[in-house]
Amino acid sequence: MYFKIKIGYLSWFSEADRMSLVAYIIIFAFASVTLLILLLSLVNCLVFSRKKQFHQALAAFVVTAVLMLGSGIMIGVKTCNFVFSQFSKTKAQVENKVKEQMEQRRKKVNYLMSGVSDNIKPKIAAEFYELCGQKDWWRVPLVYPYQLVMIDDFYLGSLEKYKGGPLTEPRKSSIAAITFINKVAFDKKMLLFQRNVELNNSEKQEWGIFEFKTGQCIIYPSENAMFKVALDKDYEGELKLHSLLYQYRDFFR
User: Fold this and answer.
1) What distance in Å separates the CA atoms of residue 149 and residue 248, rounded to the nearest whole number?
2) HEC assignment per residue over 199-237
3) Distance (Å, rounded) from C-alpha 86 to C-alpha 25?
4) Which helix (H) or strand (E) holds 173?
5) What are the tens digits of pLDDT across the range 107-136?
6) Cα–Cα distance for residue pair 35/51, rounded to 1 Å
C-alpha cells in the first residue's frame, strides 16, 4: 500500500514530465549500482597493484560518476519545477477561494441590507457585518439592527437588537429580544427559531417566528406549523433549522 501511494504521486506530473523523470530515476539507479561496482574494482586494483586495470576502472568510474551526477541534477530540477508549479497552483487556488468567499459574503450582506429601509442604510457601520466576535463570544449579523449572540459556546444564543455603542461589548450595546435559541433559519424578513424553555422543572422546545420589520414574535406548537405560516408570509430562506455554529460558519467562512 505504501509503495502504491508513493508511486501514485507521479500522477501529479504531466505525462511528458513523468516519463522523463522515470527515465532519469532509472539512469540514476543504474549509475549508482555501476558506480558501486567500479568503486570495488578500484579498491581491488589498489590492493593488488594492477595499474592498467586501475586506470581503466578509474576512467569508467569518472564517466559513471558524471552520468550519475547529471541524472541526479535532472531529477532535482524536475522535482523542484514540480514543487514550484504546485506551490503556484495552490497559491492561486487559495486566492480564488478567498475571493469566492468574499463575494459570497458580499452577496449575503447585500441581501440582508435589502431588508432595511433606505433612510437607515447610511447609518449602518461596516463593522456590523464584519465583526464575528471576540474571545469568548460570537455573533451572526442579521437584518440591521438584529444579531444572534452566543456567549461561551454555540449551543444556545440570543436574538439581540443593537442599540448603539461598541459592538465589541454586546452586554452594553444590545438588548436581548429572544433567549435560549439553539436553531435558526432566516431571510431578509424574518427569523425562524427553535428554543429551549423550562416548564414545571422540565425542559421543552418551542418554535417561533420573529419579524424584523415589526419586531413581532409569535410562538407555534410545532416546527411544521411554524414553516407553514412562514411560507404563507413569503419566507425565502431555507426550510430547515440549523445550529448556531452552522450559521456562524456559513456567514463568516
Assistant:
1) 10
2) ECCEEEEEEEEEECCCCCEEEECCHHHHHHHHHHCCCCC
3) 21
4) helix 170-173
5) 999 999 999 999 999 989 999 999 999 888
6) 19
